[in-house]
Amino acid sequence: MESAVEKLVDDFEEGHLSRRDLVKALTAIAAAGTATSAKAQETPFVSTAIDHISVQVETLAPSIEFYQTIFGLSILNQDEANRIVRMGPAGGSIIVSLHEKAPTGIVDHYAIAVRGFEQQRVTQALAEHGLEAEQNLDYGFYVRDPAGIPVQIVGSR
After folding, report:
1. Burial class of residue 97, CB neighbours in 10 A (0-12, 13-18, 19+)
2. Measuring CA to CA, how many Å separate 111 from each of 8, 12, 14, 66, 121?
3. What are residue 134's DSSP bridge partners?
4. How many angstroms separate the CA atoms of 35 and 39, rounded?
5. How far, in Å, CA of 12 to CA of 90, rounded?
6. Which uninterrupted H or E stretch holds 75?
7. Taking a C-beta distance cutoff of 8 angstroms, is the pair 54, 101 a contact?
8. Could you tell me which of 10, 11, 29, 142 has the fewest CB atoms within 10 Å of its CB?
9. What is the residue-level pLDDT of the chain in tens, covering all 157 positions?
10. Closest CA to 104 of 51, 62, 52
11. Contact at 8 Å (CB) between 82 and 139?
12. For residue 131, how many C-alpha atoms fall within 13 Å in the half-sphere facing its CB?
């Protein structure tokens, strides 16, 4: 937008644009910016990051070794009963969650962190958009996107 304004001002200063046309064009740019901001504010959530990716693997050990050796990730926590290992940088946030479960070799869900997460408010906002929030062990608190992919919703850290 900045370059568009600069071009308009240059055109005006060079006499290629009248004062009236300059004002009209600047008003249109300002209105478009306001419409874009208003549209962004209409969304029910402010997303801040991909929180983690969950991958289903055949065996945990080789996958753990891969993420440790290649990406320098550490085991941050484990759910041994459900065969889940969560990894990320030491002292950091979870990046990848490994789940020993068939079918293997798939990303079974991803999580988006949103500002001000409150499960009841999020559930209501999703319902207002015709979406049903669900919760289970595999995906946590989630909604399905139009393609059916589970999108877990978590609070920003």
Report:
1. buried
2. 43, 49, 52, 22, 18
3. 142
4. 6
5. 56
6. strand 74-79
7. no
8. 10
9. 456 777 767 776 788 767 766 666 766 777 666 544 445 557 888 888 889 999 999 999 999 999 998 889 999 999 999 999 999 999 988 999 999 999 999 999 999 898 889 999 999 999 998 999 999 998 999 999 877 889 999 998 7
10. 62
11. no
12. 18
Specify the amino acid at residue 31.
Answer: A
Residue with tokens 């600069």: 6
Q: 26 is written with which tokens?
A: 């600047």
Which amino acid does the sequence have at 102? A
Q: What pTM did the predictor assign?
A: 0.63
Two tokens at 28? Answer: 């249109």
Q: Distance between CA atoms of 51 and 114, rounded to whole angstroms?
A: 9
Tokens of 153: 């919703």
